[in-house]
Q: What sequence folds into this?
């Protein structure tokens, strides 16, 4: 199974191509660029060389550290230096090749270099294909927290070549599926049905079921982003892009607490298991849907709890981008597909829900 999802973004439409062999479309997307920079993590240097050979114009390979170590101010500045040395001008092109950490960084490099040059994303992890490379959030972390510096910036195209996923570790596949399951709970119950029907097949990156899950998650994200690209403040049940942050307030706090050593999907898995319980206690979410969180996330091999007291995580939650002043704002679920904003929730409920997570 393959397909193309059109993202009707505020900055102009673009395609997310999902197919085995999508990389072969790269030459037709280079446009009038006379020079290309390929930003990639060191472990994917062979793939980056393949990309360079495809573009057909002089190309500079820009290796960056792997995983969250790429998303730092120092690495960002190193990339700018590399682009300066390569002489990348306004008509030129940045290509990000790698997981979500690389595409977040590379997108921000493209957004900031000369105040914006063309960008093509080649996501190579499940998480980057279904989420990070789509929708225009780019940026880096600070010691104070996740994604605190960045920009909304759209690519010219996103090429999701499913054949690249065969080398991905099983735990990384599961991490990406956490975002897919998130899309199921916030918007597309068919995702939940497909995953429930066969969890093993859902994790098989060569299966049709897997490809359908990927396409459905990208479609959810494309729809949300088309309606609210820059994440306007949501009020009550009128929720825009903030819906995509389901599970992320606690998830990002966990990532920070763990020194960015936990995978993003693992952290938001705990965040969703927690929000399901908070939603049960404050919004009347039914017990079956709470159980479905545990069944799906746990069944995919994702964690449902984190080994630190809630009090250690709570301060970082206040630096969440959804917070307004001192008020914490969480994305809650009334039912599958019915998202709402919980503004200033009862703190004792938050702590109680955390303590009740299965350990
Ligand atoms: N911008 C957004 O909207 C958005 C959305 C979701 C997540 N994110 C961000 O994405 C990041 C997580 O992305 P991730 O899970 O892809 O992590 P990652 O980039 O660290 O990739 C995970 C690991 O898999 C390796 N890898 C990637 N592709 C591979 C392949 N084809 N074969 C073998 N190994 C491969 C990477 O080198 C890395 O070691 C987080 O920083 C998160 O905040 C951003
Ligand atoms: O695209 C969005 O909007 C999201 O919230 C998607 C999230 O899965 C993603 O992790 C995003 O990077 C979180 O953004 P942040 O603004 O909370 O840092
Ligand atoms: Zn996420």
A:
């Amino acid at each position: 199974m393959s397909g193309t999802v059109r993202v009707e973004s505020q900055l102009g439409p673009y395609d997310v191509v999902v197919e085995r062999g999508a990389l072969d479309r790269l030459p037709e997307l280079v446009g009038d660029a006379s020079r290309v920079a390929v930003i990639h993590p060191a472990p994917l240097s062979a793939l980056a060389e393949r990309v360079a050979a495809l573009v057909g114009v002089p190309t500079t390979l820009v290796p960056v550290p792997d995983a969250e170590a790429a998303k730092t101010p120092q690495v960002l500045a190193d990339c700018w230096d590399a682009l300066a040395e390569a002489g990348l001008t306004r008509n030129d092109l940045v290509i990000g090749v790698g997981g979500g950490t690389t595409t977040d960084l590379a997108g921000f490099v493209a957004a900031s270099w000369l105040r914006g040059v063309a960008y093509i994303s080649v996501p190579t992890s499940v998480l980057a294909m279904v989420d990070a490379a789509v929708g225009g959030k780019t940026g880096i972390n600070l010691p104070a927290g996740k994604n605190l510096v960045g920009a909304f910036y759209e690519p010219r195209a996103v090429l999701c070549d499913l054949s690249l996923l065969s080398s991905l570790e099983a735990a990384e596949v599961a991490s990406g599926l956490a975002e897919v399951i998130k899309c199921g709970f916030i918007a597309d119950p068919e995702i939940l049905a497909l995953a429930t029907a066969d969890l093993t097949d859902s994790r098989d990156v060569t299966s049709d079921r897997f490809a359908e899950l990927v396409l459905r998650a990208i479609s959810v994200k494309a729809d949300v982003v088309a309606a609210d690209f820059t994440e306007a403040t949501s009020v009550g049940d009128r929720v825009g892009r903030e819906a995509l942050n389901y599970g992320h307030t606690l998830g990002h706090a966990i990532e920070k607490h763990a020194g960015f050593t936990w995978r993003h999907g693992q952290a938001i898995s705990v965040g969703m298991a927690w929000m399901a319980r908070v939603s049960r206690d404050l919004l009347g979410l039914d017990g079956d849907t709470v159980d479905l969180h545990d069944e799906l996330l746990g069944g995919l091999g994702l964690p449902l709890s984190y080994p630190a007291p809630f009090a250690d995580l709570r301060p970082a939650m206040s630096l969440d981008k959804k917070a307004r002043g001192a008020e914490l704002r969480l994305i809650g679920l009334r039912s599958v597909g019915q998202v709402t904003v919980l503004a200033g929730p009862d703190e004792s409920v938050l702590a109680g829900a955390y303590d009740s997570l299965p350990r």
User: Anything to note?
Assistant: The chain has two domains: 3-167, 170-202+229-355. The radius of gyration is 20 Å. The mean pLDDT is 97. The pocket of nicotinamide-adenine-dinucleotide (ligand 1) is lined by residues 41, 43, 66-68, 71, 98-102, 104, 124-125, 127-128, 131-132, 135, 137, 146-147, 164-165, 167-168, 172, 175, 263-264 (CB under 6 Å).
